[in-house]
Write a structure and sequence with these properties.
The protein has 16 helices and 17 strands.
Length: 436
């Protein structure tokens, strides 16, 4: 049934798939990923459809308590707005429930409003019901509440009958819909089918288009600028048509065909890796890679044995390690020296000299000797500037992000957002098998 195990990750992946599904089924709407109102905001002129997505794969039996929080959230938004231009959809998967619309009655809404859950009362119910007591009203308006203050609010709502500030009938009949959604892999299959219907071949959809679509939506979801999280069907399809590299990232490695994606990406990298005289730079985020500190020296040794073993043809690669300071760089240099690997850091004593860092190594072809076989640096401003001045041919980004000052203009950028050296070595053709 695929690779995903962690329920939180699967919840995000389900949301990304639903976002893609809504985009591919849309016409002229603007789709806001991680919307201002809900997970997905669909904007058509002045009208907004706000969709919240939930995935309850392990729920053996449906219970209204599983959906009371999102429904109360929507009811709060409806109450605090004029409600005329917003429609709400709760899209949730429950294995025991039949696909399609599920009716929510007024009695069930009233049960939710009469909850004794202290967080639900303070965060939602207190904004839906009319409060007569001024002290309670002031406590509710506080951004941060103590445990005692929350309990005081809860006791007030338990002890008193209060008027509901919104029209529940209008909300249920005209503004809200609860849809029991598709199972995860069914939704994924439907998205691939829709992509094929939009002009992509089945092979391209499996290997390139679908993984990049999921990665694009994941990337949009983390942007802070509200406008930047907007997209349309036309914009997304145009971008996907221009991509010829398989996306390898923390999100695409959750896909069921991840091993096939790695194999496809390995083939794509092969063309440039087969060229000897290319300037290459690796950007590593140590916290992203399992056992980074223990395995980085062996990885560098394995890389050198393949790609920097011919003084006449090869040139040293740069290994830039994000977050490393001078002390950690020096420690790595010592470990590499013990393995017989000479390095250049650009440092002479405690001072960094760009000209020393960018220089080419001395060579003795007859003795199969290079003065140094790699360059090691941190992401300090002076190191990044030196790399920018000595423009690279290939940048292998083994991280989610590059340093802001790093220039990728006129550079072949390869994003390999993986979490193990085993996968990196497989992609770089250092080893022929991969563990996932």
């Amino acid at each position: 049934m695929g690779r995903i195990a962690d329920s939180t990750i699967k919840g995000f992946m389900y949301q990304f798939n639903l976002s893609l599904n809504e985009i591919l089924k849309s016409t002229n709407e603007i789709i806001k990923i991680e919307g201002i109102i809900e997970d997905i905001d669909m904007i058509n002129q002045e009208n907004i459809t706000a969709i919240q997505c939930k995935y309850h794969e392990e729920a053996e039996k449906f219970q209204w308590s599983k959906v009371s929080k999102p429904i109360l959230q929507m009811l709060k938004t409806y109450t605090n707005s004029d409600g005329n231009n917003i429609s709400f959809i709760l899209y949730a998967f429950f294995p025991s429930e039949q696909l399609g619309e599920k009716v929510v009655s007024k009695n069930e809404i009233n049960d939710m409003l009469n909850t004794r859950n202290i967080e639900y009362i303070c965060d939602y119910v207190a904004h839906i019901k009319k409060i007569e007591d001024l002290e309670i009203k002031n406590l509710v308006s506080k951004e941060r509440k103590t445990k005692e203050e929350k309990e005081k609010i809860r006791q007030y709502f338990i002890a008193n009958e209060m008027e509901v500030l919104c029209n529940i009938d209008d909300f249920l009949n005209n503004r809200f819909c609860f849809i029991v959604g598709r199972e995860y892999y069914e939704l994924e299959a439907e998205n691939k089918k829709l992509l094929c219907q939009n002009g992509f071949s089945q092979d391209d959809v499996n290997d390139i288009v679908f993984p990049n679509a999921i990665q694009k939506i994941a990337s949009l979801s983390i942007l802070k600028d509200n406008q930047a999280r907007n997209t349309t069907k036309k914009e997304l399809l145009e971008e996907l048509k221009g991509i010829r590299k398989t996306a390898i990232s923390r999100w695409t490695r959750e896909l069921s065909n991840y091993k096939e994606l790695l194999t496809n990406r390995r083939k794509q990298l092969g063309k440039n890796l087969n060229v000897n005289y290319r300037k290459r730079c690796f950007i590593f985020e140590p916290t992203q890679i399992e056992n980074f500190e223990q395995e980085i020296v062996l990885f560098i040794k394995n890389y050198i044995d393949i790609y920097c073993c011919k003084p006449k043809l090869h040139i040293p690669a740069i290994f830039c390690i994000l977050g490393y300071n001078k002390e950690k760089i020096d420690g790595l240099i010592s470990r590499l020296y013990e393995k017989g690997i000479e390095t250049e850091t650009g440092y002479r004593g405690s001072v960094f000299y760009p000209e020393a860092f960018v220089k080419k190594p001395e060579r003795k072809i007859g003795e199969n000797w290079l003065q140094f076989k790699i360059k090691i640096c941190s992401d300090s401003e002076e190191c990044i500037e030196a790399i920018n001045r000595n423009k690279q041919d290939d940048v292998f980004q083994v991280s989610e992000h590059l340093p802001e000052a790093f220039s990728i203009r006129d550079v072949n950028r390869e994003i390999l957002d993986v979490n193990s050296f085993s996968q990196i070595e497989y992609l770089l053709r250092i080893k022929d098998e991969v563990e996932i």
